[in-house]
Design brief:
The structure is a homodimer.
Chain A (H helix, E strand, L loop, with lengths): L3 H22 L6 H8 L3 H7 L3 H10 L14 H16 L4 H14 L1 H28 L9 H19 L5 H13 L6
Helix pairs in contact in A: 1-2, 1-4, 2-3, 4-6, 4-7, 5-9, 6-7, 7-8, 8-9
């Protein structure tokens, strides 16, 4: 009980079981009780560390360690945005990441603690990477100096979230390219 | 039992009870059982009409009949977009609509039938209104003829959904104005 490696090993087992069972039966049907039974752990052992299903889903998602979400910097902002956002939609469009992330956002709608942990530990660090890459591009004169980079980040991500969470149509690279082009070039002059 | 008005009256009572109880205890805690008890209806009566909590939330949302989501057409596309989207964020930012819509989107992440009904009965008709208003503006030369109007709709809505569902920061009129401006003017020329 006092060997920290044993605790870490058990934590990993529980997160791996969450991912396996979630893919088998779907995250909607996944319960902490079912994870406990499959992992051979006590229900209370899980609840002590993860007070809610959403908390367990978040740690399991973060355990995936996705290096593909890092930003390239080749000096060409459009090419780099395309590459990174294509990688992001490939993750969202496939297991294990996609269905898990969708379930996690669903839990976040009912549980403010899950929502704030998701923002703090995943959304906000990802947004910071996007903003940092845009900032470098602005410093190189590839973006209008006045443009609000946080807003650019929201315009790049928002339509993808809209499609992923609301219309639930498949995300494609072609759609990403159209969003990027629209963001750079605008829709036309207002009257 | 065969008087259709009695059925309609009961349906209305159940939807009104859903809205009242959801506002009192929060939609996350709302169960069909609790609605049944408060409305003095049998649980099976509710399940016969609404197979899931999400289905009940959707009908309750649609029973609100929000005329403010219709589009004005003054001939000025920017002014009309601003007016309509300001009204939409006021709805999203306040009860009864906002918390109910958030809970419904949460349910949609776990229940594909709820997701498709939400799209068919609410999201898609709203998107069609936006696209129709943009189309009129394009015909009047206020938008670039080549611009994809469905994409414009997604760029106008996406950042708001991102903020509403993911970062969960308050939606403001000022944010809407910045999204509209960015969409019209673009972020700058790519290198």
């Amino acid at each position: 009980m006092t060997d920290p490696r044993r605790g870490a090993g058990r934590t990993e087992t529980i997160m791996r079981t969450t991912l396996e069972l979630g893919q088998e039966i779907g995250y909607a049907k996944l319960s902490i009780e079912a994870v406990a039974a499959r992992a051979g752990a006590g229900k209370h052992t899980i609840y002590r560390r993860w007070p809610s299903k959403g908390a367990l889903l978040l740690d399991s998602l973060l355990s995936l360690h996705e290096p593909s979400l890092d930003y390239p910097d080749t000096g060409d902002i459009v090419a780099d945005l395309r590459e990174q956002i294509h990688a992001a939609v490939d993750l969202l469009g496939n297991p294990p990441f996609g269905p898990l992330f969708q379930a996690l956002v669903g839990e976040a709608q009912a549980d403010p603690k899950v929502a704030s942990a998701l923002n703090e530990r995943f959304i906000s660090p990802q947004a910071d990477k996007t903003v940092a890459r845009l900032e470098a591009a602005r410093d190189q004169g590839q973006l209008s100096p006045a443009f609000d980079l946080g807003l650019a980040m929201a315009i790049l991500s928002g339509p993808l979230y809209f499609q992923f969470l609301i219309t639930q149509e498949p995300l494609t690279h072609e759609y990403v390219d159209r969003v990027i082009e629209a963001l750079f070039n605008g829709m036309g002059e207002p009257a």
